[in-house]
Amino acid sequence: MQSIGGEKNASGKPSSGAVLVVDDSIRFLNAAARELRAGGFEVLTTTTGTQALELVAKECPAAVLLDIQLESKTMDGVECARRLRANGYDRPICMITGDSSAKMLLESALAGADDYMVKPSFKPLSAEVKRLIESETEASCKKDFDPIVTSGFLHSLGLSTKQVEFLAAFASHGFPAEKDLAVVLGMTEGAVWKRLSRIREKLGNKTSTQIASVLTALSAYRHGMSRPAGRSQTARR
Predict the structure, then answer these.
(1) Under a CB-based contact definition with an 8 Å cutoff, are residues 181 and 210 in contact?
(2) Reduced to 3 states, what is the DSSP secondary structure of residue 78?
(3) pLDDT means per 10 residues in the chain (237 residues)?
(4) 125: closest CA among 219, 216, 209, 31?
(5) What tens digit of pLDDT does each residue of 128-168 get?
(6) Domains of the chain (ranges, CATH numbers)
(7) Considering only CA atoms, which of 183, 181, 184, 180 is closest in space to residue 199?
(8) Among 42, 61, 144, 197, which is most buried by a count of CB atoms within 10 Å?
(9) Are 130 and 2 in contact (CB under 8 A)?
(10) What is the Cα–Cα distance from 39 to 125, expressed in whole angstroms?
(11) pTM of the predicted model as reported, rounded to 2 decimal places
């Protein structure tokens, strides 16, 4: 068994050390569970976002692998990720997708995902999950994080200083629901929605590779290694 349990999440509950896989394909779930168990992981599986929320609240898994396009009228994978973050889950969320378009990855980034895997052409799944968990642990402990480098990357995508600061605050507070973010930032819910909409519009013409890098940038802020860069600081790439 991978030695990954025992740490606590934002709510103070110890991680179970398990990996939760959420996909509406039973065939994929069985294959993923088989490979992860062979790699030494305890595995939890479910086919719905609703059950995923319940399992995370109960078990606090070390990581969640989440199908973006869950076939549900009430909750797809992106919405599930958003609710997990709003509920305080702060372990890695990796989106599983057959659609790696920039739009889909952008929505995943803004929902709080840390990474993504394209199916069916995965690298060895257990190795990827181990990398994801270890990189999350390293990032949480990293002392020399430079927020200006991350800010510079986001600026390079055409975002204004205010938009970079807004995204950094959004991520560093754990991707809360818009109404909760409004309270934290002292804004109206409508103003929060408008800012997110403008960011979506501005990033809408970027490539999948660029948007995938946004996942990494926002994940860094989520770990609390920085606060939004001040306006007086000069961003560099």
Answers:
(1) no
(2) helix
(3) 39 67 92 92 94 95 92 85 92 87 88 86 79 74 58 85 90 88 92 93 87 84 54 29
(4) 31
(5) 899 888 877 666 555 445 566 677 888 888 889 999 989 98
(6) 19-141 (3.40.50.2300), 147-222 (1.10.10.10)
(7) 181
(8) 61
(9) yes
(10) 9
(11) 0.78
